[in-house]
Amino acid sequence: MNSDLIYDWNSCKGPEIPPGGPVMLNDETLRDGLQNPSVHDPSIEQKIEILHLMESLGIDTANIGLPGAGHRAYADTEALAREIVSARMKIRPNCAARTHKSDIKPIIEISERVGMPIAAATFIGSSPIRRLVEDWTVEHLLRTTEDAVRFAVDAGLPVMYVTEDTIRTDPSTVKALYSTAIRSGAREIVLCDTVGHATPRGAFNLVKFAIEEIVRPSGEKILVDWHGHNDRGLAVANSLSAVAAGADQIHAGNLAGRARREHADGVDAGEPAAFGLDRPRSFDPEEILGGSRGGHSHHHPAKLSGGGARRFPHRHGRACRGDCESL
Ligand SMILES: [Zn+2]
Questions:
Q1: In a domain, 7, yes or no
Q2: Is 312 a domain residue?
């Protein structure tokens, strides 16, 4: 709005968030959010409490773990899946998996044991710098993608296909990988900034490219997700740009640096019509962990809103391969 007293550059033409269309939220607190050197893996009781709070907020989907990571990860993921079934929650679960059968099999097992579909979020490195360090060819990535996605789809799992560091991957490789995943049966694609590289313009351009060059030509109905880390404090701005470019779902909620859920909720409050969301409050998982992250559990319902003061650095050691992946 412009007047004699104020000139508002915000009112100039630019990427617009499409009105009316709901945007879904995928909560990564219980998976990506725990990939951090200073965050203890919460007890299963604390994880279940966080899951219920996600449900109470109306969060659409949640990543409930990477069950291929080991015995405890498997047990906790199964317990969370059982809780969703027994409490008749609406939230829809997904699990992370490398594009390996050994990571996908546990998701198939848990899905069958609890009697509920669980989407497999199969991820793979893709950027040129990662390919150089790992000595991977694009052909190898394509074969791995096809094998993994078909394996999960043949077992009846919905597949979200993810590439790490998509924001620094060349367009031809992005197109080849995601097109292969879609041909192999993936019906949701996740575009990532796993290193905090993206600017709002980059997020917009990548999502627009994926929709125009990959999704539309496929002729399939494909959900497009944006997963952006917050290393430079741009995760919320990047998520809004991704939505403006047509993303269906953004990833939020963390202990480590994805677009923080309370920020996303703040945006919702300002743009409820644009987001089609009505989330009256947020919660801070750090509060549920009692501030100690030592397994000590305090539950302060009165404190379960607003942002946490603490910020944690990303884990930049365990998964570093030429660059810093943390998905
Ligand atoms: Zn991530």
A1: no
A2: no
Render pLDDT for 225-238 as a digit per residue (tens, 0 to 9). Answer: 999 998 899 999 99
| CB contact at 8 A, 258 and 32 | yes
Return the pLDDT at 291. Answer: 47
For residue 57, being part of any structural domain is answered with yes
CATH number for the domain spanning 167: value is 3.20.20.70
Percent of the chain with pLDDT over 90: 65
Count of domains for the chain: 1
Distance (angstroms) between ligand 1 centre and the Cα of 12 equals 32
Give the Å distance between the CA of 227 and the centre of ligand 1: 6
Ligand 1 midpoint to CA 325 (Å): 8
DSSP bridge partners of 170: none
Tell me, in angstroms, the distance from the centre of ligand 1 to residue 33's CA: 8
Cα of 75 vs centre of ligand 1, distance in Å, is 22
Q: What is the pLDDT of residues 238-286, one digit of tens each?
A: 999 999 999 999 998 754 444 555 444 333 333 333 333 344 445 666 6
Tell me, what's the pLDDT at 260? Answer: 53
Question: Tell me, what amino acid is at 1?
Answer: M
If one compares 62 and 316, the residue with the highest pLDDT of the two is: 62
Ligand 1 (ion): which residues have CB within 5 A? 32, 194, 327
* 323 inside domain: no
In 3D space, the residue among 24, 172, 168 whose CA is nearest the CA of residue 91 turns out to be 24
CA distance 263 to 167: 22
Q: What range does the domain containing 108 cover?
A: 21-303
| CA-based torsion, 41, 224, 186, 229: positive or negative | negative
